[in-house]
Amino acid sequence: MNIVIIGNGITGITCARNVRKLDSNASITVISGETEHFFSRTALMYIYMGHMKFEHTKPYEDWFWEKNRINLIKAYVKTLNSKDKTLHFDNGESIAYDKLIIACGSAPNKFGWPGENLHGVQGLYSIQDLEQMERNTKNISSAVIIGGGLIGIEMAEMLHSRKIEVKMLVRENFYWGNILPREEAQLIGKHISAHGIDLQLNTELKEIISDDQNRVKGVLTNKGEQFECQFVGLTAGVKPNIGFLEKHELETERGILINEYFETSIPHIYAAGDCAQFRNPKPGEPAVEQLWYTGKMQAETLARTICGDKTAYNRGIWFNSAKFFDLEYQTYGQVLPEINDQQKSFYWEHPNGKHAFRANYSSKDDSISGFNFIGIRFRQIIAEEWIREHKTIGFVIQNLKKGWFDPEFSKAFYNDISHSYLQSLKSGNEE
Q1: CATH number of the domain that 216 lies in?
Q2: Which one of 192, 279, 358, 425 is separated from 374 by 20 to 30 angstroms, measured CA to CA?
């Protein structure tokens, strides 16, 4: 069996490794135009900040691939001929496949803003983007970041580490206000501002202004304000990186359309990770999952199907984590910006504004549906267990200590949270 994988990110490489574990005889080839070897994409910022070198971001030694008989090709796929089961590269070469896995990741969004293609304007996703950012930010003094997502805050911290003045244009009322409840969004926004980042809330980009050398010199907002800068970071989300399939018969919408087995509209072609879109996602689950751990889970499941054990994907309980400078965030289950009529929510925040806890639960039977932790490390296995087993909010409050990742530092938090919850019951202040 000749298996070809497009993309050497977490999804493509996890799939290759797991296929090799399950099938010692399969021919496995991984194609990537970005880099020859797999690296940790989340570590790009640390290269820029001087904490790591590129070689430190590679989880496996270079000899690993040959030892495990995983062939690596550094090239960009130009066209896919599904009738002949052949991929054609930008260098004129080609490769045949029996089964094809497309795991080509994401690309930064562009929305047709005037000036978005000027020199000094870019997104941040690939190693090439990082190299471009090194060039674009050399000897500059000010930057504007468009968008308030996780890539945006990473870029802000990167620029701040080099003493570059940073403004962030955020269209929502609060930073990450489309993801977080108002209290958490406000807390994180204050923390970002305290680190010297100028958050421009309720503000959208209208135009990127050029100098006479086709380089950015500033931005114009929807409020008519003009901010001078020498660099603009486009971090208003990402989209599936499927441009090479634009005229192909493979069915796509936002991403490559797949079923629960990662099968596409064409036999023997599969898609997974950031570039894939579920045709019929489960209720409450996104059609496109663009997270590191979901890419890994998808790849592990797909490898079983590829090797003859057809297995449907089951993500399980939603989980995500992030870091805003030195402030850590974890979420489990469902915590939307607004609760619905069937939910209640308990929220606690430490007076210092660096620690917070939220539990959402059913208004009918008090069963837990989701958690947010800010500045508190909590054990994932415990949080997921309580959600899966429908533990009540009362049980959770009484047993919070079981989940503290650093219990020696969390005793005071537990006492404060417990006291606050009891007070909310007395006063009826639950949301």
Answers
A1: 3.50.50.60
A2: 425
